[in-house]
Request: fold
Amino acid sequence: KAGVTQTPRYLIKTRGQQVTLSCSPISGHRSVSWYQQTPGQGLQFLFEYFSETQRNKGNFPGRFSGRQFSNSRSEMNVSTLELGDSALYLCASSPRTGAVTTEAFFGQGTRLTVV
Amino acid sequence: GEDVEQSLFLSVREGDSSVINCTYTDSSSTYLYWYKQEPGAGLQLLTYIFSNMDMKQDQRLTVLLNKKDKHLSLRIADTQTGDSAIYFCAEMFSGGYNKLIFGAGTRLAVHP
Reply:
């Protein structure tokens, strides 16, 4: 069974640009969550999608957005990039059979560098 | 509140046991997790424990949960150099929707 696939693995963007990151969850998993990892703030929850609906959002500005497609693949978008957006962006895939999932499996992440 | 705390660094000798500790604040958390992160990689789910359990063992890994003190620990038996990594404790936010609250991570260094 293939794991969580995130593309691209590395990205370099200029301040003010926008970027789109992609995540393909484990086959059969319908919940996708996104996290930002930085040396200063650690791992922080961005948002979660289930059945194409955003169910929860972390404390991030509106420049951070996402969506989920009918095949459960998810994308996140960051507009008007700032230097502080440089981070490892991680996607997690969960089976979510009920209100709360038991396991969340992470991809390798996308390393975004804003210059 | 949402807060998970871990000590930042642990150094052990190869072959010894490692114990990584974590405290959390959300007493309603249903599941607690341990993840491992190697340099340049994502997070690898090591194990998790349901909040009504006291202990879970999985090969070299033993998780102990003290719900009264909101304390979680991960014991790695016979620690090897390949165990050198950052270990994250996480709780599932009781508000649901698959929101994990992570600690800052404990860097485990294994030396000969």
Remarks:
- The first strand of chain A starts at residue 5 and ends at 7.
- The interface with chain B takes residues 4, 6, 31, 33, 35, 42-43, 45, 48, 50, 55-56, 58, 90, 92, 94, 96, 99-109 of chain A (CB under 8 Å).
- The radius of gyration of chain A is 13 Å.
- Chain A has a mean pLDDT of 93.
